[in-house]
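Hi team,

Filling in the usual template for the complex we talked about on Friday. All components are listed, including any nucleic acid strands or ligand strings, so the model treats them as one assembly.

SUBMITTER: L.P.
PURPOSE: interface mapping
COMPONENTS: two
RESIDUES: 320
SEQUENCES:
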Amino acid sequence: MLKLGNVEFKSRLILGTGKFSDTATMIAAIEASGTELVTVALRRFNRDKPSDDLCAPLAKLKGVKLMPNTSGAMNAKEAVRAAQLGRELSGSPFVKVEIHPNPHHLMPDAIETYLAAKELAADGFIVLPYIPADPVLAKKLEDVGCAAVMPLGAAIGSGSGLSTAEMIKLIIRDSNIPVIVDAGLRAPSEAARAIEMGCDAVLVNSAIAAAKDPVAMAKAFALGVKTGYAARQAGLMPKSDIAVATSPLTSFLK
Amino acid sequence: MFLTVNGNKIEHLGDGTVSALLAELGATPEHTALTVNGDLVFSKHWKIFKLNDGDTIEVLTFVGGG
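RESULT (copied from the run log):
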């Protein structure tokens, strides 16, 4: 069971709701994935495009909690305000703190993220910060009361996979809170690998929304996450630098 | 009174409450959060919160995001 703050989740897959071609496909993908937690973003109300408003379709989903993000915030102060607005609108205590001031690489600002996460955790939010795969930062975020840390696998939307795997292993080794890979994944096999190596969950958006068939890909990611967790529970065999024969090497027919 | 709403200057003709402004904009109150001059105004206060000429208001809603 994945536990974030005081809330338990059966699913280890968290979905982002961006980039879907239309709302119906997004809702179908959420349902197919079996997720119980989805991220949403805050933007200016646009009277000319009321269809952008996700409140109504998301409210119809059963058993799915909302996690507003702070995307668009350039610093801790803006992120805290976005989080407060998100909580007011969703009624949800979850917040994904993301502060990435450079649109070219979208790398998280570690300092501003830390400051915002600390303030929001003290204010009673269940804080999940999106962070660089930095084990020192991860531990400091745990110390200030974050419910989980979400190191990036690769740049947002890049589909470059688990390029930070070795650093994420260091985070997992020392962490007493859930570790969730957020960003960069492209294939369900990468989600399986993340869970196999000890991650507690993965957050996926582009890999599903930009797939040829987003609903089928949502199902595939659900299976990938389940497979990874089943494999971890089963216990992977030890690695060896040399061959270890599976068939007897002695008493061969002469 | 004149207000700046989501970066656009508009003339508000209602009674000057947040609720009246949202009705004028066609925004669904349950799908909306907002700030006045940078400060969050909770929805429970919208019927009585009075706007002033020159206020800057950000009206926000949820959209898709990762």
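MY TAKE: The beta strands of chain A are 2-4, 7-9, 13-16, 37-44, 65-68, 94-97, 126-131, 150-151, 180-182, 201-204. The first strand of chain A starts at residue 2 and ends at 4.

Thanks, L.
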